[in-house]
Write a structure and sequence with these properties.
The chain has helices spanning 7-38, 41-45, 59-112, 116-125, 128-152. With 156 residues, it is mainly alpha-helical.
């Protein structure tokens, strides 16, 4: 922002760059997974680029899964940067504590209702595209909107 560009331009440019980089990495990961699958795990049944939870027969879907998860990670990073720019170290500590407390409270609630089986059954019944693409995309949109709102009020 010290280069004279607006916060909106900086945020948009960073987001577009993160999406392009995620797409490039997703393509590389998909090619490596295809090579790994073609050689039966490099001849040793070792699967690194397509681990057990992400075994997808359709290469386009695998690339989309990789890309979506990488964009989600970049969005979380953008959000952390916006929090730090707006509120400093204290903001990072408060946000981290809030995530731990809310996550712990949610898990305690699910446990007290004895509903972990229901949660796992629901996730198990969903196709890979919903769990690894749909849910992360919803999170990307929500976190992106929150990050944009946060960065708009950051002081240079």
């Amino acid at each position: 922002m010290g280069a004279g560009i607006s916060r909106r331009t900086f945020f948009l440019g960073t987001a577009v760059f993160a999406m392009a980089l995620s797409a490039a990495y997703a393509l590389i990961l998909t090619v490596l997974a295809a090579a790994e699958n073609a050689t039966d795990g490099w001849g040793l049944s070792l699967y690194f680029w397509s681990p057990g939870g992400i075994v997808v027969e359709n290469p386009a879907l695998l690339a989309l899964i990789h890309c979506t998860l990488l964009v989600l990670a970049a969005t979380v990073g953008l959000g952390a940067g916006a929090i730090y720019k707006r509120w400093g170290t204290t903001g990072i500590y408060v946000a981290s504590a809030a995530i731990v407390v809310l996550g712990g409270a949610g898990m305690a609630l699910i446990g007290s209702l004895d509903s972990w089986g229901t949660v796992f059954d629901w996730f198990g019944a969903q196709p890979a595209s919903v769990v690894a693409v749909g849910i992360p995309l919803v999170l990307v949109v929500l976190l992106g909107a929150l990050t944009h709102a946060t960065i708009r009020r950051a002081v240079p």
